[in-house]
Amino acid sequence: MQMVSDSMVLGPSGLQILPGDHVCVFYPTRADRDAVVLPYLREGLSAEHKCIGTMDSADAEQALDALRDEVDIPSAVDRHQLKMYTSAESILRGAPFSAQTVLDFWEHNIDEARKAGFGFTRMIGEMEWALRQMPGAEALAGYEAALNQVVRRNPMVCLYELDRFSGEVLVDVLKTHPKMLIGGAMLDNPYYLEPDEFHALRQ
Length: 203
Description:
By secondary structure, the chain is an alpha/beta fold. Helix content is 40%, strand content 20%. The protein is built from eight helices and nine strands. A seven-stranded mixed beta sheet has the order 5-4-6-7-3-8-9, sandwiched between helices. The chain has a two-stranded antiparallel ribbon with strand order 1-2. Strand 8 (179-182) and strand 9 (185-188) form a beta hairpin. Helix 4 runs parallel beside helix 6 (137-151), helix 6 (137-151) packs parallel to helix 7 (167-174) and helix 6 runs antiparallel to helix 8 (195-202). The longest helix is centred in the first third of the chain and has 17 residues, at 30-46. The chain is globular. Residues 21-178 form the MEDS domain.
């Protein structure tokens, strides 16, 4: 089993992330999204890590199908190693957006994975749900800031399709991720604010 101190692959160019990294991925097309997500999941499933995510894109299932030649997807699902939720099943649950509800969702999944014996959990959050029930730039970014205190030693990758979010939202979201991936480059984010600092500026 891969140790939690090891780095992990994110994207086709073998970019490395570490346990506990909270990465914001800005992507222009779904193909670019899949080029980031699929290697991340492929490596995690092969290493017997728990892989969970929230994806509402109509082609999310098709994206996972691309892994079937290399990974036994049905087996991973049956063994509760792989679970992809829609926002209705997880983030929204038929109610207005609540940052605490979403944080509790991730905390619960991390805890359940640990109890099941998984080394740690790889997480993916596709943010398309926010376009249908937009909580407002401040609420969304506040959730992202708080998420830094939840992920701890587990990697979290948040996915934002560039053309679908306003500049105001993207600027605030940028402040809440220690790392960002854009144009195939992984960067330490110079605009990142620690959660306490971010929330203090919002008061």
